[in-house]
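Same chain as my last thread, 274 residues:
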Amino acid sequence: MPMEFIINMLKNKKSLGQHWLKDREILLKIASDASFGGDLTSSENDCSSRVALEIGPGLGTLTSALFRHFEKIVAVEFDAALAAKLPLQFPGKDLTVFNEDFLQFDLSSLPAGYIAVGNIPYYITAKIVRKLLTAENRPSRIVLLVQKEVAERMVACESLLGLSVAVYADARLGLKVGKEYFTPPPKVDSQVVILDVLREPRVSAYDLERFWKMAHAGFSAPRKKLAGNLAGFFNVDKNAMREVLASIGVSPDARAEDLSLVNWMDLLDFSLVS
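reply #2:
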C-alpha cells in the first residue's frame, strides 16, 4: 500500500504531537545513524546483534528503514490504533509493540547495548531524553529527530537539558530536516541529534545528587547572574559567590548558560571542600 495513501488515511492527533516524516532518504539516514552506519547486508558492520528501541513509531515509516539495519525492534506507541496496526505491516519480522506511555515503559526489559531511536513529539523531548540517560539500563546510542532549536540546546551546556546530555553522553548534530518534509508540516524545522552514551557519567554516582542540586539552583533564574542564583546553595552572600566564580576562572558576572561542563565540575569540587 503506497505510503502517501496510508498517511492520507490516518489523521494525526495534534494532542500527541504527531507529524509524519514522509521522505524515504531521510528515514534511511536516521536508521543508518542509529546503527553506527552498519547494515545487515554488510558482514563488516553487522548490527544484527543489536536491538533497536523505537519511540513512537506511528505509521511505521522509520520502522521499515530500521529493519534494514536491525533484526529485532521493540516499539513503544501511545496511540492504540497505530500500535494495533503496526505488527500487521511487518509479517515475519521480529517486532514487539507496546501500547503504552514511553515515560512509563520499563527499560530494564531490554538487552544491554540497545539503541534508542525515534521521531519524537517536541513537547516531551526533554522528559524522554532524561529518562533514557538516567535509566539504570541506558542505551548505547540515542538518535532522535527533534525540534531544531532543542537539538542545538542538547549539544551545548546552555540549559539543564544540555548539561544533562553532557554529563551522560557525547553529542553531535545530524541531518537538518525542514518542516516541508512532514505531513502535516509543523511550525518549525527539525534536526537529528546523535548521543553516544558513556558507560559511566562524567560526574561520579556519589556526587550526582549534589551536582544536580547545584545545577538546578544555577538555572533557577536563567536570566539572572549566576552569583545570585548560587549564593544560597553555597550558603554565602552574593559578593563571596562572585569570588568563588572568579577563583575557578569564571566571570563574576556570568549566567548559568555561560558555563561549560568543566566549569560546573570545578564548582562541584569547590562545594565539596568548602
